[in-house]
Amino acid sequence: MTAPSRRETRALLARAAEVQDDAGAIVDILQAARAEVVEAYAIASEPQVWAAIGKMSIETVKDTVDGRARLDELPAHGICSVADVLKAGADRLTAVPGIGDGTARKTIHAAEQLKRAARDSLQFRIEFDPKNADMTRLVRALARWGAVWHAAGAHEHDAGKLAAELARELPVAGPASAGRVRRLFMRAGDKAVADDAARRVRAMVETAEAGGLPRAAREARAVRTPGDRQAWRDFEQRSADYYGLLSQVVGLGGDVAASEGFLPADIVERVGAQQLDTSRLNDSLRLRGYQSFGARFALVQRRVVLGDEMGLGKTVQAIAAMAHLAARGATHFLVVCPASVLINWSREITRHSTIPVVSLHGNGRARAVARWRNAGGVGVVTFGSLGALGLPPPRPALLVVDEAHYVKNPNAKRSQAVNRVAAESERVLFLTGTPMENRIDEFRALIEHLRPDVAAGMGPEHAAISVEAFRRAAAPVYLRRNQPDVLTELPELVQVDEWEEFGAEDGAAYREAVREGNFMAMRRAAFAVRRPHDSAKLTRLLELTREAMANGRKVVVFSYFRDVLETTGAALGADARGPITGSTPVADRQRIVDEFSASRKPAALVCQIEAAGVGVNIQAASVVILCEPQVKPSIEAQAIARAHRMGQVRTVQVHRLLIADSVDERMIELLGSKAQLFDAYVRHSTIAQAAPGAVDISEVQLARMIVAQEQQRLAGTPEPPRRLVATTPATEQARRP
């Protein structure tokens, strides 16, 4: 090979110097952006730290100081909390009888320790307040950090090493570009050393340029910190990404055991040892710690149910698991889901990963299936279409079943179709944010698809013993986390019961429904009016909506009944969007939500509660109005979680419209205790209805009890309900188109 000319060597060394500058710039820019976030966070979090220690009583200090210290007099002098101790200082403390200099020093030292502990465990929230200068500074710093990390984060480690190596090699390689005369006077050994160094420099430069390091440096240098309004607007639209950026730099607190689903130590250890390859994920996805744990749990345990509460990002955890397997050579994946979320799955996979997506649904399905078989990627198919695909082969590296509670009935055709594919899949991940609504048998039916051996070892006796016993039995296959445990940044949820009284027209409609024993007509009688002001519920709904919109908030209105939605939509007029009902085509459903979310003008989205309770994210709305109580407590919880979820930055207000002395009040009385038992079991990664006494009242039982109670209350004598069977929730659902 011909030796490079002097001119070529000089050009090489000039390029190397530029690459060295680029590598150093990447390190410096990233370090500066990270330091800016750390400093801004320290300032913005300080008020929240003081608020936390302001809630710690003086008893906390007494427990930390020498037990002989006499601090009982402090509250009488206005020093009641840890914060008060630090604000008072030594001078004020020693003015309290019985407290000398030594006790004052110990007390302040204890308070400072407690403040440090409070800072370390702080569950920090970015308060959505553009007028707060400290929060604004943090949001802008995070926006800059995100931009420079996107530009150059992948090169940070290599850039520092490269800059150091070039700094060492360039002086040694310099003589390789010397002129002919100078080289005549150089020793042969020195020439060889310089030429070897030049070759090493060339290899480093070529590797850096091929890897895109100079381009990354240019993009990082070009990043500008956005203005206040732009940063806040971006935060409002992508708050979950901002918290992901913040968690890269500082700890965000939270309950570690809860984020790990209270799993046994041996499983946690195995999951912790599992590395997660994120090379096939796009920069748009910044996994939270609990999300990474969920993806690794699915990889380690292989055939599992991820039962995270709604709003915690089960979809991205599944995508992360698929991306890991794809990075390790896997080619074929399959997602089975309801038709209502098929488009959303395709969008999310494309947005967050580099794995190709093929929709195996609708026109051209046969060609799509052939393309997926040959080229691989993620095939997305509905429950209804799965049986017609003739799968497998190919054998999916991971089968993901969304809304997996749809296959809890082993005799249903869709359950049998899922079971056939699951049996041939290397790994299976069931996703459901809906805890099982019935007895343990239905949960065992789900587990039968995954681990028959685990299902065989689970029985009612585990639930009868304790929540912990059931959790241990389910641990190999079931992981569940709840919002308050892992989403420390979630804004407050304010729930208000709006009690009203019937007027003449809606009251007459209600009494007629009671006389007929028509449970479903009783539930929607409050909206059976000709004019909005004749309905107490509708009048209040319009008041709440107008007030919310006047304050720049978007509203989502939920009802079980289509005719209630029609009445509500007509009353709201131009402010209404939708409705979204069970018959709304999937594409139209997503378009309506997208337009509602993107609109800068406040509006009200009108939704059927069961149709919009699956796969619809409506965090653009921060006011939720429920037109009537639901038969199952979990249905309301799911509807609320569509707005109060990861990405929400505003306090969520929930208003339940209720009529006193009516079916509404009876339903709340009967279902309230069940909801409490349901929650107690669900929060510990178990099945709500597994415990004795926590069995949901059936729809027919509920209807019969309430109709009889209301007939007795209004007529004064008990009367068996008429036409009851034709008007229970189940049969009403069957009659709806």
UniProtKB/TrEMBL annotation:
<keyword id="KW-0067">ATP-binding</keyword>
<dbReference type="InterPro" id="IPR014001">
    <property type="entry name" value="Helicase_ATP-bd"/>
</dbReference>
<dbReference type="GO" id="GO:0005524">
    <property type="term" value="F:ATP binding"/>
</dbReference>
<protein>
    <submittedName>
        <fullName>Helicase SNF2</fullName>
    </submittedName>
</protein>
<dbReference type="InterPro" id="IPR001650">
    <property type="entry name" value="Helicase_C-like"/>
</dbReference>
<dbReference type="Pfam" id="PF00271">
    <property type="entry name" value="Helicase_C"/>
</dbReference>
<dbReference type="InterPro" id="IPR027417">
    <property type="entry name" value="P-loop_NTPase"/>
</dbReference>
<keyword id="KW-0547">Nucleotide-binding</keyword>
<feature type="region of interest" description="Disordered">
    <location>
        <begin position="712"/>
        <end position="737"/>
    </location>
</feature>
<dbReference type="InterPro" id="IPR010995">
    <property type="entry name" value="DNA_repair_Rad51/TF_NusA_a-hlx"/>
</dbReference>
<dbReference type="GO" id="GO:0004386">
    <property type="term" value="F:helicase activity"/>
</dbReference>
<feature type="domain" description="Helicase ATP-binding">
    <location>
        <begin position="295"/>
        <end position="453"/>
    </location>
</feature>
<feature type="domain" description="Helicase C-terminal">
    <location>
        <begin position="537"/>
        <end position="686"/>
    </location>
</feature>
<dbReference type="GO" id="GO:0016787">
    <property type="term" value="F:hydrolase activity"/>
</dbReference>
<dbReference type="Pfam" id="PF00176">
    <property type="entry name" value="SNF2-rel_dom"/>
</dbReference>
<dbReference type="InterPro" id="IPR038718">
    <property type="entry name" value="SNF2-like_sf"/>
</dbReference>
<dbReference type="InterPro" id="IPR000330">
    <property type="entry name" value="SNF2_N"/>
</dbReference>
<keyword id="KW-0378">Hydrolase</keyword>
<keyword id="KW-0347">Helicase</keyword>
<dbReference type="InterPro" id="IPR049730">
    <property type="entry name" value="SNF2/RAD54-like_C"/>
</dbReference>
